[in-house]
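Table S7 (text form). Paired inputs.
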Amino acid sequence: MIDNMLIARAASCDVRARLYANGHDLRDPLLSPVYGDLRGFPPTLLLSGTRDLLLSNTVRMHRKLRQAGVESVLEVFEGQPHGAWYREASAPESKDAFEEIARFFDKHLGK
């Protein structure tokens, strides 16, 4: 119950992943890009929190992007669960997240 966004009774992340994959190999890059060739990906901004169940996977993706020569920015917000910045837009962390997103877009898409 550390991540209050990604919760469901009797459903672990593994159960959900298998449901999502629908019988396909979980290492298929079309299901999980971290297993693919990331060269040529556009600059990428990744947001997570210290209470996000997917934090480790987000870090893995960030490192894989960097290893492929892709500009990748990882922002981790203290005490935040998965997608918290989206759920409560008035929270200080959400405001910080939206400012980071705006800066990233300004840099890569221009004003």
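Next pair, protein 2 of 2.
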Amino acid sequence: MADEIIVYAEHQDGKLARPTWEAVAAAQQLATALRTNCIGTIAGENVGSLAEELAAAGLSEVLTLESPQLAQYTPDGYSAALRQVIESRHPRFVVFSHTYQVRDFAPKLAASLDRVLIGDSLGYRREGERIIFIRQVFQGKFSADAEFRGEPPYIVSFQAGAFRQDSVQRGAGRAKISSVEINISPETVRTRPQEKFREARQAVDLSQAEIIVAVGRGIKKPEYMELAQKLAEALGAEIGASRPICDNGWLPMDRQIGSSGQTVAPKLYLALGISGAIQHQVGMKASRTVVAINKDREAPIFEIATYGVAGDLFEVVPPLIEEIKKTKAG
């Protein structure tokens, strides 16, 4: 039985998805801790160029799973393809990023192998020979330890932002790319893909944003949202919000960040008038740099902020916008 780790590379619209690199980073770190190999796996049709891109990471090998039945994503096709690889390679761990697609087919894959899935993990720690995964429960109020029992393969997914994509180890050379023969009959795929689900007409994937300006109740009135919009425009940022802003209809629900909204991990997160309740922190605490502006010095957001400004956002933000404009003009 192999002791290797397989990591699943998700792709959409002909590109490797950002969560793929976060999953690779997680798998690489786990492989280093266990002193074993890390293998990339990509499924679809005509995925050669994507496999080449993936092979630039520090992986031992990249496996391509190609079939006409995998040309479009379906839970039946993808779970069947991954199952065949897992049964032939006998890895110790199979690692995913906890995306909508993975939530759709990974439980089916685990059940078909008579295994469990530890999903949406924040990270892991090693205690001797034991690997213990950390998950949030009760909307992020508590953290719980989870550990696999029985024989591998062990299937785990990590929350978006749990590992940074810039921590991916690059290899000195390109990893070997191997084509794996996959047998999937047309009868196996019982679903027909239709238009991708979107929660709202204006839906935006904030998890892909590198800069986010997020607004909380400190903005006071909907007419003052324009100030946040101007800051976002100056920075080339997406705009997000805490739950009360979206509940009040000041921004669409697809802009909500937190335990009941989106989970983000941008390079820069500016929190304007956000107190930083635990439900909001769950969705943004993986941000690389957090700048909080709040007149309440005791606001919880300051506990996780990289930089904090204890002041009135209506006094701080306008000159900040002007300085950003001057910097860009210069």
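The CA atoms of residues 92 and 152 lie 5 Å apart.
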